[in-house]
């Protein structure tokens, strides 16, 4: 009797797992169809003296950017930025260029140019 109960319990658990797994897969495929694909962009920002910005300055800029991004939702995200002498190059993921310009306007960040990244290569590509 105990073995029949355990077998029944195991079958119920497997059934629930299967149903939940199928529901999750269906949900993911629905979300993929509803949510537009995010493109990758490189933003060039002319900022005289960018290379001399302090850690505190960079933290403040980062915090401002993250606050604006949080308000804008999941249609745009910041990947990373590269700080050079008089420029900052930022990598973003977004639905479109308009969202990047909106983020810049809300945050007070200059945009010199926006380039959509079509692909990436690295030393790994040669293998």
Structural account:
The protein is α+β, with helices and mostly antiparallel strands and 127 residues long. It has 2 domains: 1-35; 39-118, 2-Layer Sandwich (Alpha-Beta Plaits), CATH 3.30.70.3090. Helices cover 49% and strands 23% of the residues. The chain is built from 3 helices and 4 strands. Strands 2-3-1-4 form a 4-stranded antiparallel sheet. A hairpin with a 3-residue loop joins strand 2 (76-83) and strand 3. Helix 2 crosses helix 3. The longest helix is centred in the first third of the chain and has 33 residues, at 2-34. The radius of gyration is 23 Å and the shape is globular. The termini are far apart. Mean pLDDT is 83; it is low at 1-24.
Summarize the SSE layout with pairings.
Blueprint: H1 2-34, E1 39-46, H2 55-72, E2 76-83, E3 87-94, H3 97-107, E4 113-117
Antiparallel strand pairs: 1-3, 1-4, 2-3
Helix pairs in contact: 2-3
Tell me the strand percentage band: 15-25%
Give the number of domains: 2
CATH class value of the largest domain: Alpha Beta
Main beta-sheet strand count, sense and barrel state: 4 strands, antiparallel
Please, how many helices?
Answer: 3
SSE run: HEHEEHE
Rg, please? 23 Å
Alpha-carbon distance between the two ends? 60 Å
Strand order of the largest sheet: 2-3-1-4
Write a short abstract of this structure.
With 127 residues, the chain is α+β, with helices and mostly antiparallel strands. Helix content is 49%, strand content 23%.
Which labels suit this protein?
alpha+beta, single chain, 23% strand, disordered N terminus, globular, four-stranded antiparallel sheet, 49% helix, Alpha-Beta Plaits, 127 residues
